[in-house]
Amino acid sequence: MKKLLKVVVLSVFVLGLSFSVKAQNKNIVELAVGTESLSTLVTAVKAAGLVETLSGAGPFTVFAPTNAAFEALPDGVLESLLKPENKDQLVAVLTYHVIGAKVMSTDLKEGQKAKTVQGEEVSISLKGGATVSGANVAKADIKASNGVVHVIDAVILPPSMK
């Protein structure tokens, strides 16, 4: 029985290691495309014309809102942002979720500010769990070949758009 348990534990470890290695071989866009809970983000990135940029060398840190985060936006907001005539606004919202450097969760400090690709800063809080401009970090440190993804539970808006 102990031998079987060791085999199961070792198998789980190897599978986890395999997933981690596979994730690191994918760029940020490829990771998002392969993650069902980020499909709305993928749709938005495509509509904004940011696929090539976020597939580039980076490094990038992306605070990736889940589908539920997009669904929590007020009625009509997402649909409006996805319209071609609102592409500039969509780009501003999405690039506010990106830092032009690789920032792991261990690099974060309470009260830290980080300039986003959009140009404005996000604020970091570590009290009661990590948050980025008020959004909770649901899953941190998903490594990609061109940076890192931190999944968040809300869409964060640049202060200039509030």
From TrEMBL:
Pfam families: Fasciclin. Residues 25-156 form the FAS1 domain. SUPFAM superfamilies: FAS1 domain (SSF82153). InterPro entries: Adhesion/Biosynth-related (IPR050904), FAS1_dom_sf (IPR036378), FAS1_domain (IPR000782). The keyword Metal-binding does not apply. GO terms for cellular component: extracellular space. Keywords: Signal. Residues 1-23 form the signal peptide. This is Fasciclin domain-containing protein.
